[in-house]
Amino acid sequence: MSGEASLDLRLPIGGLFVVLGVMLGGFGLATGGNTEMYVRSGGLNINLIWGVVMLLTGIVFLLLAKRGAAPKR
Question: What domain count does the chain have?
Answer without folding.
Answer: 1
